[in-house]
Amino acid sequence: MSWQSERQAGNYPLPWSVRRWLPGNTIDENSLIDRVSLAVDLGSVLRALRSLPTDAGASAGRHSFYRGCHPSVYSDQVQIALERLGDDVDAERCREIWLAATTSAWDAEPVWFHGDVATGNLLTEQGRLSAVIDLGTCGIGDPACDLVIAWTYFDGEARAAFRESVALDDATWQRARGWALWKALVTMSDQSSPDPGRTQQRVLAKVLSTAP
Q: Which of 60, 132, 149, 158 is the S-S candidate for 39 at Cβ 3.0 to 4.6 Å?
């Protein structure tokens, strides 16, 4: 179906395309997943992605919604969020985490990042990761943005397994925590898409209570 016909049908008002169908279900549709195994598999995929040649890659920027850039690109939105949310959040703790996230930078050559590692973009078959989809925001830059799932989905042993498997340094994890903080704050302060299930409020609680 073309974008125009879909748009006229009123089902989805933005441009889209289907390249090919892949078997599997997204992880947010599968409650029987072994999260530790998934964490190891996903870390391996992201590690492999970073190893690919970058000659033909697009540098992080507007096309990736600045994923792959330094998180400070969104400092103004974090400040606006903290002003709007007031006493609803621990602003002092948020500022501490944001400062830690923005005082380091990716100091190696730019590498490939996915840009939207989220539950709806990971497919599984028989409980194991089978595909990573939706590469529309991928590019080359800082891979910290790809670690946010450590706070949005993984916990405990699975989170530790993901960290070990993805093999990135502490500073990168600090920036990743900043990306998770930013997304939670801008969503909660109505600067991003709605969150009727208050998922980002729960993510924020993890970000504030869990070490990077």
A: 158
Region of residue 126 (left: phi > 0; alpha: psi -120 to 50; beta: else): left
Contact, 83 vs 76, CB < 8 A?
no
Instruction: Give dist(CA 130, CA 114) in Å, integer.
Output: 16
pLDDT digits over 164-174, tens only?
999 999 999 99
Query: What pLDDT digit, counting tens, does each position of 7-56 carry?
Result: 334 567 777 777 778 888 999 877 788 999 999 999 999 999 999 999 98
φ, ψ (nearest 5 deg) of residue 17: -150, 155
- List Cα–Cα distances, 84 to 61, 66, 129, in angstroms: 27, 23, 39
Going by their DSSP bridges, the two strands 122-125 and 139-141 should be labelled as: unpaired
The first and second tokens of residue 90, run together, are: 């621990």
Rounded to two decimals, what is the model's pTM? 0.90
CA atoms of 181 and 136, how far apart (whole Å): 23
CB contact at 8 A, 113 and 138: yes
Coil, strand, or helix at residue 78? helix
- What are the respective helix, strand and coil percentages of the chain, to the nearest 5? 55, 10, 40
Task: Pick the closest to residue 169 from 147, 184, 139, 154 (CA basis).
Answer: 147
In this structure, the strands spanning 122-125 and 111-113 are unpaired
